[in-house]
Design a protein that fits this description.
The complex is a heterodimer of chains A (220) and B (422).
Chain A: H1 2-16, H2 20-33, H3 38-57, H4 63-80, E1 97-102, H5 110-121, E2 125-128, H6 135-145, E3 149-153, H7 158-172, E4 180-184, H8 190-196, E5 200-202, H9 205-215
Helix pairs in contact in A: 1-2, 1-3, 2-4, 3-4, 5-9
Chain B: H1 10-27, E1 38-39, H2 44-49, H3 53-58, H4 60-74, E2 78-79, H5 89-95, E3 100-103, E4 106-107, E5 114-115, H6 126-131, H7 133-145, H8 163-169, H9 176-209, E6 217-218, H10 222-231, H11 233-242, H12 244-269, E7 273-278, H13 288-308, E8 312-317, H14 325-328, E9 337-340, H15 345-352, E10 357-362, H16 364-369, H17 372-387, E11 393-397, H18 407-421
Helix pairs in contact in B: 4-9, 5-9, 10-11, 10-12, 12-13, 17-18
Classes of the chains: A alpha/beta (220), B alpha/beta (422).
Chain lengths: 220, 422
């Protein structure tokens, strides 16, 4: 058992240290040759992502590490997921639902995609409604998805007004109290948060995750 | 008697010289007689002139008239290339440019153009680019970025053609796709000539009124060139791990390619300042180790080559680059203007005040959502903590005026500069 634990730890370390080739090869071996439980392998990936997130918060890792981590996870997931045997009624418990999109007029998606990925690997259900999202679409999607948090993204200064309009529409639709609203993007600061009426803003993906965890009572 | 609108009177020349001297003084780290203020705008002119973004992009005469009105109202010390920055609509359309969406082409008539971040070069194409940059451009890159070049994918590979093989090899030029490309390119080039003609005419008109321009040409950092225009943001971030040796080789190569354009263009413009918007340097974008390995060395080499050629690099350090200050300080004193977007200017002054002139940096959120008195207070803060203690500051917004800035906030910015700093 100790040997297995060491191998498991090896996978976690290689993933956390951005050793892509070795980690992918070990994960493949575990899944395809050792018949290791794919859910366990995905759990190991999650443990590695926790370390990546911490290193990001501590200023050791930056966007390139988050992007590569996402790729490594996706590649291992592509091997593991077809091997997962569905057990009826067994659904992984999620921390909450987050609906995310870039506000109308703005076509940027890199930051939004990284936030979506980080929320996903941190145990949230995420629905990404895309870029240049009209207010009406946000309202419809929210009614349908019933999120706990709505995340509005925007890189351009025109997004300030779009975010304000979108949040005002939540008020108008009488749904503002049903979820928290966070905003983020290159130019977003406290002045913009106050202007738009959002509950909070995040400067990066980890801050976005922490906001959601705090709101949903799942602080790490 | 009709006077040429670009004729400079002696009074205008004197005004021009005084304004330009303020910029030269800042660069050489001498205190000018007052803090210079720059007018840099892209689509803000649409708000100011009451026209659509699309009109600004397509109607040369209207854009020139609005820009001139703004310059005369605000009376800045230096202006940006106000027409060149926005009036490219006809050119983009003529060439069928694929890397941007602009009013009427993917975005609404009252929205700014937006760049499409994509992989215009794939991860496995480094070798091809490194081996034969021109061949890679002709057959692969150009057809991907503009419709007018699509026929070039069928061009012969010139390198390697010889003797009768060369004579026979040119028959591909009869192919319809190649003919169509050349025909479209000639039309696009004619539009491009008109566009640049209007730009040159506008700059001459501004000079005749006494207003110098902040920069003669615009450049790019080698890393940003590859990240933005070839590999795309996430592609480049993965290359740092997966293709690091090839990336380093390509950075070396493109530094030379970029300088081959930049130095003659800057010299031809007659203005030594080279504006370089910097996209991938911010603190949050990569570790110090990655920055010092992948980003900074090629950029420093580019800046030093510009300085050696008698030019003045003016990087605009986008976002927050506070953690980079000690590294980017490593340039000769009195040769550059560092424009900061969100880096704390007071901190930048403390670290770099004896090395470079500074430019910036009223925040976009303040300018777009704040009140005139808040803008006034922000200018006062910069004057008291940067200008008065000896900082060679050219006042500007963080990245020029945000498109949505209320006109009264721009008035507040300019009047506060005069009120607090001469």
């Amino acid at each position: 058992m100790n040997d297995t634990t060491e191998r498991e730890q090896q996978l976690v370390d290689w993933l956390a240290d951005m050793n892509e080739d070795d980690s992918l090869s070990l994960a493949r071996q575990m899944l395809l040759e050792d018949d290791k439980d794919p859910l366990r392998v995905m759990e190991l990936c999650r443990m590695a992502m926790d370390i990546v997130g911490k290193r990001f918060e501590e200023g050791e890792y930056f966007l390139p590490e988050l992007v590569l981590a996402g790729e490594m996870l996706e590649n291992i997931g592509a091997i593991a997921k077809p091997l997962i045997k569905q057990v009826p009624g067994e659904v992984a418990k999620k921390l909450g639902r987050v609906l995310i999109g870039t506000v109308h007029g703005d076509l940027h998606d890199i930051g939004k995609n990284i936030v979506s990925f980080m929320l996903d690997i941190n145990g949230f259900d995420v629905k990404d409604v895309g870029i240049d999202v009209p207010v009406k679409t946000f309202i419809e999607e929210i009614k349908d998805y019933q999120p706990d948090v709505v995340a509005l993204s925007g890189f351009l200064t025109l997004a300030f007004e779009s975010m304000k309009e979108t949040i005002a529409a939540f008020e108008h639709e009488d749904m503002r109290g049903k979820f928290k609203v966070m905003i983020g993007g290159g130019q977003i600061d406290e002045t913009v948060r106050a202007y738009t009426g959002a509950d909070a803003y995040g400067r990066n993906a980890v801050e976005a995750v922490n906001l959601c965890k705090n709101w949903l009572g799942a602080a790490a | 008697m009709n006077m040429d609108p670009s004729t400079q009177t002696s009074a205008a020349k004197a005004a021009y010289d005084i304004r330009w001297q303020r910029i030269l003084d800042c660069i050489s780290l001498k205190q000018p007689d007052r803090m210079p203020v720059a007018l840099y705008s892209t689509f803000w002119l649409a708000k100011y002139g009451g026209v659509s973004h699309k009109q600004l992009m397509y109607d040369y005469e209207t854009t020139k008239a609005i820009a001139e009105r703004a310059v005369l109202e605000f009376d800045p010390d230096v202006i940006s290339t106000l027409l060149l920055t926005v009036a490219s609509g006809r050119c983009l359309e003529a060439i069928g440019f694929k890397q941007l969406q602009w009013p009427g082409h993917g975005v609404g008539e009252n929205q700014p153009f937006q760049y499409l971040d994509r992989e215009y070069m794939k991860a496995d194409e480094y070798d091809e680019f490194l081996f034969d940059p021109t061949g890679f451009y002709l057959h692969t890159y150009l057809p991907r970025v503009a419709e007018a070049f699509e026929g070039f994918a069928e061009l012969p590979h010139f390198a390697g053609l010889y003797y009768f093989g060369l004579v026979a090899g040119i028959r591909r030029f009869t192919r319809p796709a190649i003919r169509e490309s050349f025909e479209r390119l000639v039309k696009a080039a004619e539009e491009s000539s008109r566009f640049i003609g209007h730009h040159v005419q506008f700059q001459a008109r501004m000079a005749s009124l006494g207003y110098p321009c902040t920069n003669g040409t615009t450049g790019v950092a080698p890393y940003d060139f590859i990240a933005d225009y070839f590999r795309g943001a996430t592609g480049m971030m993965k290359d740092i791990f997966r293709n690091k040796d090839k990336l380093l080789q390509l950075l070396d190569k493109v530094t030379i390619l970029l300088l081959r354009h930049l130095i003659p263009n800057a010299k031809a413009s007659g203005n030594p300042i080279v504006f370089i918007p910097v996209h991938w340097a911010p603190d949050a974008f990569m570790s110090a180790k990655h920055f010092e390995t992948f980003w900074w060395p090629s950029f420093r080499k580019l800046m030093l080559a510009l300085i050696d050629a008698g030019l003045v690099p003016m990087p605009l350090w986008e976002s927050d680059c506070t953690k980079r200050l000690e590294v980017i300080k490593d340039v000769p004193a009195g040769k550059c203007i560092y424009w900061f977007e969100r880096t704390d200017m007071v901190k930048a002054f403390e670290v770099l005040g004896d090395v470079v002139a500074l430019r910036g940096n009223l925040s976009p959120s303040l300018l777009t959502t704040g009140k005139p008195e808040e803008v006034d207070a922000a200018v006062k803060h910069l004057v008291e903590h940067v200008w008065k203690p000896g900082g060679k500051l050219i006042l500007d917004a963080a990245f020029g005026l945000p498109d949505e800035t209320p006109v009264e906030n721009v008035r507040a910015m300019f009047s506060a500069a005069r009120k607090y700093a001469g």
